[in-house]
Amino acid sequence: MVSYTILHKAYVKIFLHAAKHPHKPVNGVLLGRLSSGVVTIQDVIPLLHHWTSLSPMMEIGLTLAKGHAESVDLSLVGYYQACERIDDTALAPVGERVVEQLRTQFSDVIAFVIDGDALGSGEVALIPYLPQASSTSWRPQTLNPPAFAPGSRIMLADPQTPSRAVALVRDDHLHHEFGDFDDHLEDVTIDWLRNNACNITDP
């Protein structure tokens, strides 16, 4: 049974994507690698913020994201989404289809749904989803200890990351510099694959 560790840069990018579009569904993919039983989620690529289905734009974005991941010697190891309503924490049907697509190439894929109620609290605002045994059904993962608690198989590399992410939005307004594939389609100068303009680095 593998474990998952989310690095600072990856969490902050998910947070910025949700903060930039607080009243819209957003989604993206997780980049990382598996080593010694641990999937390290090192980065994310934000895809869309006005999607309703597995659209041609989604497919193009996924293809480009996969190519970028391979160019930096990483794999697409998961998916994240935020829902339109902050109290909605269900993995959308399109999300299930995307993670099943990713699972054909990376068997230990994971999905996260952003917890809108926790987003600005300084607590971890991610709800993990893993597939049910022998099924394509995805449910919130009940772990003992719970996700992100000491000793859990789903952890943050830096426990201070959620509070730092809040400060980057509240004090530095960094979410305004962040762009996804939708933004890139409207302004091709936006580097959605890397988001180097945000200058996020791991501590």
TrEMBL record:
Question: Which one Pfam family would you cite for this protein?
Answer: UPF0172
Domain (MPN): residue spans on this chain: 4-135
Q: Which domain of life is it from?
A: Eukaryota
Q: Name one GO cellular component term.
A: EMC complex
Q: Which residues form a coiled coil?
A: none
Family membership, please give it.
Answer: Belongs to the EMC8/EMC9 family.
Would you tell me the protein name for this molecule? MPN domain-containing protein
